[in-house]
Design goal:
This protein is α/β, with parallel strands linked by helices. The protein contains 5 helices and 6 strands, in the order H-E-H-E-E-H-E-E-H-E-H.
């Protein structure tokens, strides 16, 4: 009953989330990590291997459920240097339940603070708001 009011303050971030994020950041073990909130805690839902493309990643997004995603985007600069930007994406599709959107929105900053090394934040309610063009322009 009192769960809603407590949704943000009672949120726990599972240690595994931080561990996998560090592996993505330092070892580049993953291309992306999908996180979801399950019974008051943020847990790792899916790991995308380094060989996965951006298209693989967007295809794996739940169509009507919110989630958080950390995506490691590689780009080649005009000087031909490879550089990587770590994106935090709050995925909140229009079709997801209002209450779910509220829980994810209220917990986002707390969760993001646990992940040291996020460089760009995006919010998307449909795939066009996180297209490759947008990601590329934000990675500059």
């Amino acid at each position: 009953m009192g769960m809603q009011a407590n949704a943000a303050s009672g949120m726990v971030v599972h240690d595994d989330c931080k561990l996998k994020f560090l592996e993505l950041k330092s070892k580049r073990d993953y291309r992306y990590i999908v996180f979801k909130i399950e019974s008051q805690q943020v847990v790792v839902e899916k790991l995308g291997g380094p060989e996965e493309s951006y298209e693989d990643f967007t295809n794996s997004l739940p169509a009507d459920e919110c989630c958080y995603i950390v995506f490691d985007f590689d780009s080649i600069t005009t000087e031909n240097c490879q550089k990587s930007k770590i994106f935090f994406i709050a995925w909140s599709p229009d079709t997801s339940k209002v209450r779910m959107k509220m829980v994810y929105a209220s917990s986002k900053d707390k969760f993001k603070r646990e992940l040291d090394g996020i460089q760009v934040e995006l919010q998307a309610t449909d795939p066009s708001e996180m297209s490759l063009e947008i990601i590329k322009s934000r990675a500059l």
